[in-house]
Design brief:
- About 70% of the residues lie in helices and about 0% in strands.
- The termini are far apart.
- Helix 1 packs across helix 2 (about 30-45).
- About 10% of the residues are buried.
- The chain has helices at about 10-25, 30-45, 65-80, 85-125.
């Protein structure tokens, strides 16, 4: 089997490597380096090729994925509104404005209802 042959990997492992590679490329890593890192990550998580005859029963570890998710989440939480996409900024602002509108309209509704009920009570007492 030549070096770099992926025949002992399952389709799922190949998909995983592809997704990881895309993530690295999005972050500006060269295509070749992204592929190398992706397969290194798949090997670390799954213990190499999983197809029959390539050493079955290896435990899989999701530590790399967990670490990447933590890093990404921390970065996203710390990002400023300027760094967010235009659509994301728009949806956030519209959510905020609609929430404040609904709060103010419910407060207005209560005050007008209380006034009308007090008028009704005054009329009935006369």
């Amino acid at each position: 089997m030549p070096r770099g042959d992926k025949s002992s990997y399952t389709n799922k492992q190949k998909r995983q490597a592809e997704h990881i590679e895309e993530g690295y490329e999005k972050r500006g890593v060269s295509r070749r380096e992204a592929g190398r890192r992706a397969w290194a990550t798949v090997n670390k998580e799954t213990g190499g090729g999983k197809k029959s005859g390539s050493g079955r029963g290896k435990k899989s570890s999701k530590s790399s994925s967990r670490k990447g998710g933590k890093k990404g989440g921390r970065k996203a939480a710390a990002s400023t509104p300027r760094r967010k996409s235009a659509g994301s900024r728009k949806s956030t602002s519209s959510r905020r404005s609609s929430a404040s509108r609904s709060r103010s309209s419910s407060a207005r509704g209560r005050s007008s209802r209380s006034r009308s009920s007090s008028r009704a009570r005054k009329k009935s007492s006369r």
